[in-house]
Amino acid sequence: MAFPRDPKVLFVVSxxxxxxxxxxLVDQIKRMVASGQLAGGAPLPSVREVxxxxxxxxxxxxxxxSLLETQGVLSRRRGMGMVVSQxxxxxxxxxxxxxxxxxxxxRAAEEAAQLHIDHGAAIALFEKVLKGKR
Amino acid sequence: MAFPRDPKVLFVVSxxxxxxxxxxLVDQIKRMVASGQLAGGAPLPSVREVxxxxxxxxxxxxxxxSLLETQGVLSRRRGMGMVVSQxxxxxxxxxxxxxxxxxxxxRAAEEAAQLHIDHGAAIALFEKVLKGKR
Amino acid sequence: MAFPRDPKVLFVVSxxxxxxxxxxLVDQIKRMVASGQLAGGAPLPSVREVxxxxxxxxxxxxxxxSLLETQGVLSRRRGMGMVVSQxxxxxxxxxxxxxxxxxxxxRAAEEAAQLHIDHGAAIALFEKVLKGKR
Amino acid sequence: MAFPRDPKVLFVVSxxxxxxxxxxLVDQIKRMVASGQLAGGAPLPSVREVxxxxxxxxxxxxxxxSLLETQGVLSRRRGMGMVVSQxxxxxxxxxxxxxxxxxxxxRAAEEAAQLHIDHGAAIALFEKVLKGKR
DNA sequence: GTGGTCTAGACCACT
DNA sequence: GTGGTCTAGACCACA
Lengths: 134, 134, 134, 134
What we know:
The structure is a homotetramer of 134-residue chains. By secondary structure, chain A is mainly α. Chain A folds into 2 domains: 21-94, Winged helix-like DNA-binding domain superfamily/Winged helix DNA-binding domain (Arc Repressor Mutant, subunit A), CATH 1.10.10; 97-132, no CATH class. Chain A is 54% helix and 6% strand. The first copy, chain A, contains 6 helices and 2 strands; from the N terminus they run αααββααα. In chain A, strands 1-2 form a two-stranded antiparallel ribbon. In chain A, strand 1 and strand 2 form a beta hairpin. The longest helix of chain A has 18 residues, at 97-114. The N and C termini of chain A lie far apart (38 Å). The A-D interface holds A 15-16, 20-21, 57 and D 75-79. Chain B binds a DNA duplex (15 and 15 nucleotides) through helix 3.
């Protein structure tokens, strides 16, 4: 049990949703890194563990991890599985949390424009939704 | 009291984008109905016409129209083309423009929460993005 | 006004239903002949009149009349429009009302079999539906 | 506890008949779900398999499956094929076998009324037809 | 003229 | 392996 502490990381996926499972994992891990929930060097649960827990295909988890490795967010520690990169350029880029939020807001702005919803109404709705979140 | 001839309805699609063409058409028509640009009873350009104009396959257009028909947004006038449903429940649901915008904003709120971005910062970013739209 | 009495015949069609309009007209007229509501020699409303009343295309009415003429149910009286055939073989065949009802019941029996509904339950449901009709 | 492998599900279609092939498939699968022959979670033969077996185009099969998915009868397991929805509202509605039979019987009752056929005669004919089915 | 159906075959995304 | 998307082109039914 000399492993680097129990990685109490939990992922959630919604199968049969529009977004691919591997993509949901990638986004989720990025957000956890950005918010500091996953610090540099922190270990990630093994591919097999995630696969069993979420009842998904191991290859799907592997694809997510590989993608994040390519992007420099995760590193492969031989014999120890994946860990969050210490301060690689990849991780650096993710630290800008606003940048991660922007794409979705841009899509919302696009939709608002096409629906002829003015800025005030759109912002009001966003505020309402944010408050409803908790 | 003649019918609004020459349906000057124009669609735009971005091929080679991630979103399927038929889906782009579906979303676009829904927004046009929602914004009142396409009123109840308004005729839609024929499948062939759209296909030629956008240089896509008629079946792709047909698929979009069929989907909208099952959703109650469009009605088929046998041998006479498609028209926007008069006041079907489907169309009704679409009339609420804010409701159409909400899902995306909810996703944004969800992401903001996971990123530990506070409400003020999120709203500020949304305002910035909205202004950037034009 | 020397026309053979006002043909108080009324047709009903449900547009945007599965069954073609001309077919609905054909079936309806056959049933009216079978039940005696339209006796031999009785005049039918003109193509134009039916088309205007039901707000459908005259060609559709014409197609129904022509089909019935081919089948010997109607006859074309020059200058007088269509009338029910006096006792042509076509009309004769229609006089068997049960035969007209049979196809639909056969389809029902087919469906009941595929649904594994036994005869007793199917008949019980039919009785219930018949009583509900009035 | 292994999944019910070898889905011995067989479909039959009559090409060159009036009813579209995809519609025949849809109806057939609905009846199989209704009669319990296809339980919730049961896997369906792959699009390609059905296409080869019935010697029809994969897209035709795909269209049937897609329709049943939008109706909530089937679910897509990403990359793993289609299965019968566990207990979706769509499936639920189908479980009532009598309800599936009713529309046809109502049409028959309607026709009987228009033909002035009394209830007794109509039921007698239905019994006769049912017996003739086997 | 309208939309609907089907085919044959290619390519892509997900697991 | 799975289903999804799109194409090009043919034929049919309806009004």
